[in-house]
Known about the structure:
The complex is a heterodimer. In chain A, 58% of the residues lie in helices and 0% in strands. By secondary structure, chain A is mostly helical. Chain B is built from six helices and seven strands; from the N terminus they run H-E-E-H-E-H-E-H-E-H-E-E-H. Chain B has helices spanning 6-27, 59-62, 77-89, 106-116, 130-134, 162-180; strands at residues 46-48, 56-58, 67-72, 96-102, 122-126, 142-146, 152-157. In chain B, strand 3 (67-72), helix 3 and strand 4 form a beta-alpha-beta unit. The relative contact order of chain B is 0.18. Chains A and B meet through helix 4 and helix 5 of A and helix 5 of B.
Amino acid sequence: MIGASTIACSAVSPSTLRAGRGRGRRFCALLCLCALLACGFAAPVFAIDPLPFKDRAEEQRFQALAKQLRCLQCQNESLEDSNAPLAADLRRDVFEQMQAGKSDEEIKRWLTARYSDFVLYDPPLHGGTWLLWFGPLLVLAAGAGAVLVTVRRRAKAGASPQTAARPASDVEDDW
Amino acid sequence: MNPRLLPFAGFVLVLALLGFGIWWSQYHDLREVPSPLIGKAAPAFSLPTLDDPERRVTNLDLAGEPYLLNVFASWCFACREEHSILMNDGKQLGIKLVGFNYKDEPADAKRWLAQFGNPYDLIIADLPGDVAIDFGVTGAPESFLVDAQGIVRYKYISPITPEVIATQLLPRIAAMKKGAK
Lengths: 175, 181
């Protein structure tokens, strides 16, 4: 369990190295090497710890939940994928809470009380995140507004005989 | 404005947005996890001390005076860098310095402290890492400033530097002491 660091951003498992064949394999190995060099640190390799699920349904529920949660140590990995010791601890905690009959929402609340919304890949809608949720819609609305204004202006200009006489191909890039 | 300039204006706008993003990320750590614990009571815990596993320390034992809880481990490379700062400037804080030995074998931690010195007034050990999760610890080093009422006032992720002590910790400690009087 011991042997990690805050800079341990990439833990490489042997299975990753074995995954490719031929050139792909060499490329993969090279990538892993680069990742290791970039981190300046080699994390000891741990297999994803097996948890004693009672049936397939429970396992699927656990996996679905772990996919939605971020590993705090290796922040671009989900709790499901991460090899970080903290991720293993959190997986164990999530599993134990599932065993205790907690709902997914309760487990998420338990985690956000400690690690803030950062732990959720799907950010909840509240005061601080409305721009994140509706920003794209605002941009879309602004675009629609711009198109509307242009079309109206063009329609007005089209009413005058001069522009009406123009060939259609010229109109296309005239905006 | 010439409508033909509109695409260019749009391009400049996008460029400005990207430029702002680059500038902003220089002064903000995008990996920093905000702590929901700030302004709330430190989580309840009962942990053994590093020196004597039989002796347990609880959050109530630490209450009554402010303290800095410093998460460290012998396996943590960045902690080494921080350690010399704590050795030199730790006393300057004027509050209790509590070491939180995180997921560390006691023997390793003791050897590490023997080698680099011990700046802590008290060291509690969390080998399984459960209490660390209650504190929202994401790694080491991390530091929590807790006031006399047991409320978490500040959290700092990454190694403490003399600058952090001067600009972040000391003003907050002074404010806490002023508030207590």
